[in-house]
Amino acid sequence: MMPSSEMSIFAQRAWLLILFSASLQGCASTSWTLDLTRQRCGSTFDGVYSFWNCRAWTVTGEIQTTQSRIFEVANAHGRLPLKSGKVQMVFVDRTWTAASDMLWIETSEGQLVTEIAITDQGLIQEIPGSLAIGISGTWRDGKPEERIETDGKQNCLTSGSCGKLRSEQRCDSRGKECSTHSYVQYGGHPDCPGTELVRIESDTYRRFYTIDFVDLRNPAERLARFEGSDKRTRELRRWATSACTANPF
Predict the structure, then answer these.
(1) Which of 24, 126, 158, 170 could form a cystine bridge with 244, CB 3.0-4.6 A?
(2) Considering just the CA atoms, what is the radius of gyration of the chain in Å?
(3) Nearest-angstrom CA–CA distance, 18 and 130
(4) What is the pLDDT of residue 15?
(5) Over the range 62-72, which residues count as b (16 or more CB within 10 Å of their CB) and which as e?
(6) With 50 as the cut, is the pLDDT of residue 51 above it?
(7) Nearest CA to 81 among 118, 133, 29?
(8) pLDDT digits (tens, 9 = 90+) for 5-17
(9) pTM exceeds cut of 0.85
């Protein structure tokens, strides 16, 4: 079964969450370590994210529960006991408008997927009703740590020989029934697609996350706090290091 435009937004979100959870639960490690899980789940992550046109990243950190207690996070898709210790969180930033953002939580006790909202203003909020407890948090970018330069390629336009897509109207002898005919015209053009080499200057930095778990019956009572980070690269500028060369036919 595939989501269709005729399905409700709620049904599409639920279907996606179930598929995502089932895929990751199937590959998650039984002998838990962060590296082993990432290695085993890598192809599943890439496949699911590519299929749904999503962007995902993994944050490693620690969770500290209040008074070292153990509490349970639960929703319609599973249950996960949380205690102080290492936690891996995979954030999934949706690009498919019918889906919410998602958060996959993995500890040595198991895994759980829930829906969240990630904003560009540094906020992380739980979708109401996704969990029996509340989730809210923030993220912030740290200072640049390292300046790096890498080589790459990019598309460009240049004079040369290439094929250009053209179209024309073709009508019958009476000029009543017409249709559009498309064809490729080969020859010399001033704006042929090409490729050029570039040098890319970037810096690396860390993004820091703080996420609180609270009791919905008493939002002022914090059950636990997660703190973690991931390493990122940010492009600063790029410049061409070769002439633009027309791509071959």
Answers:
(1) 158
(2) 25
(3) 13
(4) 46
(5) ebebeeeeebe
(6) no
(7) 133
(8) 333 444 444 445 5
(9) no
